[in-house]
Amino acid sequence: MTTLILKIEYDGTNYGGWQIQPNAPSIQEEIEKVLTGLVGSKIGIVGAGRTDAGVHARGQVAHAKLGTKFPVPEKKIPYVLSSKLPDDIRIVDAKIVDYDFHARFDAIAREYSYTITSQNSVFNRLFSTLINYKLDFNKLKKSADIFIGKHDFTTFSKYNPDTKSYICEVKKCQWKEISDGTWKLQIRADRFVYGMVRSVVGAVIDIARGKRTIKEVKYALKDCDRKKVSPLAPANGLVLEKIFYPKKLHIF
């Protein structure tokens, strides 16, 4: 059996998230409909990350197991699929491999970004969060260090009955000013739990606003108590940037 691997970007504004759900459109559903129409039988795909409603992706990866030969040449797959998908979903790259590959379980790291801005512009509203209050950017940068390393992120997550462990190893967490009044967080970890990035962003923004101290948030992380979480940052500023795999797999 061969495996189809897709690299996908999408604007999540109009979707209930990556995963198929009964009461809202999803990215997964849209792609599966196109694949099923091309092959003539039901094709299911598995994504590397289950992004929430309103969250975007620049480097989502998904796979599908193929029981028969795919009817489109490998080089043309991105164009053919993208032409049949809504304009806010695009297939960036595609590969067909003859080995067993799992987009989620074979991943060794994931990277997200979160963008905040003080520039109130219609061109910022979908992909960044508007900040209407003063921030101490030295505190913003310093507070990101709290989360680097291996920690139990129970405090900074939403409850998910399917999650067996909330321990994640954060390898990078840093803010950069990308233009005047616009800042981007880059956070990379071996895994993320439900709501983790938005919880982290909410906490560091509270520190930069003077509503919480770095010491207080450090203790909240250690205490594994969701009552000590800050308000979650809005979904629109969050982007799944990249999925990392072992080099030997040669995935994108």
Give the helix proportion (percent range): 10-25%
Distance between the termini: 21 Å
Question: What's the number of domains?
Answer: 2
Q: Total helix count?
A: 5
**So, CATH architecture of the largest domain?**
2-Layer Sandwich
Overall form: globular
Name the CATH class of the largest domain: Alpha Beta
Structural class: alpha+beta
SSE order, as H and E?
A: EHEEHEEEHEEEHHE
What is the CATH topology assignment of the largest domain?
Answer: Alpha-Beta Plaits
Strand content: 25-35%
Question: CATH superfamily of the largest domain, called what?
Answer: Pseudouridine synthase I, catalytic domain, C-terminal subdomain
Low-confidence runs = none
Largest sheet geometry = 10 strands, mixed
Return Rg in Å: 19 Å
Mean pLDDT rating: 96
What's the number of extended β-strand segments? 10
Can you give a write-up of this model?
The chain is α+β, with helices and mostly antiparallel strands and 252 residues long. It folds into 2 domains: 2-105, 2-Layer Sandwich (Alpha-Beta Plaits); 109-242, Alpha-Beta Plaits. The chain has helices at 27-39, 77-84, 137-143, 196-209, 214-223, and strands at 2-10, 46-47, 56-66, 89-97, 109-117, 129-130, 149-152, 167-179, 182-189, 238-244. Strand 8 and strand 9 form a beta hairpin.
Short structural description:
The chain is α+β, with helices and mostly antiparallel strands and 252 residues long. The protein folds into two domains: 104 residues, Alpha-Beta Plaits; 134 residues, Alpha-Beta Plaits. It is 21% helix and 29% strand.
